[in-house]
Amino acid sequence: MTSNQPPLWRRAIAELLGTSLLVAIVVGSGIAAQQLSPSDVGLQLLQNSTATVLGLTVLILMLGPVSGAHFNPVVSLADWILGRRAGTGLTLPELGTYVVAQTVGAVSGSMVANAMFEVGTSISSKERATPGHLLGEVVATAGLVLLIFALAATSRGVLAAPAVGAYIGAAYWFTSSTSFANPAVTVGRIFSDTFAGIAPASVPGYVLAQLIGAAIGIGLLLILFPSAARTADGVVLAHSAETARS
After folding, report:
1. Average pLDDT, stretch 74-86?
2. Residue 103 is inside which H or E element, if any?
3. Is residue 132 within a helix (H) or strand (E), and if so which, with residue range?
4. How far from 79 is each of 116, 146, 215, 229, CA to CA, in Å?
5. Degrees (nearest 5) of the Cα angle 4, 6, 9?
6. From residue 87, how far is each of 79, 90, 91, 95, 127 by CA, in Å?
7. Which of 91, 136, 143, 197 could form a disulfide with 175 if both were Cys (CB 3.0 to 4.6 A apart)?
8. Greater model confidence, 243 or 22
9. Are 88 and 233 within 8 A, CB to CB?
10. Considering the chain, what is the average pLDDT of its residues?
């Protein structure tokens, strides 16, 4: 990151808080949907996806100026990989800090959602890792990485909040996996045996599919936007020097 960035501890708190709130939104809205529409899975998905779109958009706007609002290890990893090509983006210690903060945040968010709805924290039994689901995760993650870094490469990072929210909302419906597209969120959702949960046995396949998707997204990005590596510092939202001094 550039010298204009807030200190790493502040960015780590933002990533932890943002990922925690994101998972609380996903899991909490899933529990609410299950309770409100117990016999209509389609309506449950609509309620869950709508809450996620709105919540994710708000979280990016709120915390983007602090940490870049990655909330996702594959976004942070892509930022680091691309930055190595041009001396920008996250350093390796920053990458490790972001990933730990995101994962801890995701687990805590799931627990908070469970507590709010008084369902208790338990390990999910919902198996999801079919070949179709894994392909869905590859597609969802590749598109997400391409979108985020394409916006940065074309100086449109200010559109990240609505664009990423819209993409995830659409991917809930056009991918068979409902677009987890995030290893930290995937791990966090283990800890809720509800509508949004995922069984531990399904997680390795999902994470591997997400990493493959991220690699494809980076490859497509470099084909379409060869100068993208130079803009890694701008992911997800540009950070101003004024923000860093606050």
Report:
1. 89
2. helix 92-116
3. helix 131-153
4. 34, 11, 12, 8
5. 145
6. 11, 9, 9, 14, 41
7. 136
8. 22
9. yes
10. 92
Per-residue burial over 16-46, b = 16 or more CB atoms within 10 Å of its CB, e = otherwise: bbbbbbbbbbbbbbbbbbbeebeeeeeebbe
* Confidence (pLDDT) at 245: 35
Range list of β-strands (E), the chain: none
Q: What is the pLDDT of residue 87?
A: 75
Q: Look up residue 190 and give its DSSP letter.
A: G
Residues 6+ apart with CB under 8 A from 55: 21, 22, 25, 29
* SS3 (DSSP) at 123: coil
Tokens of 240: 């101003």
Length of the chain: 246
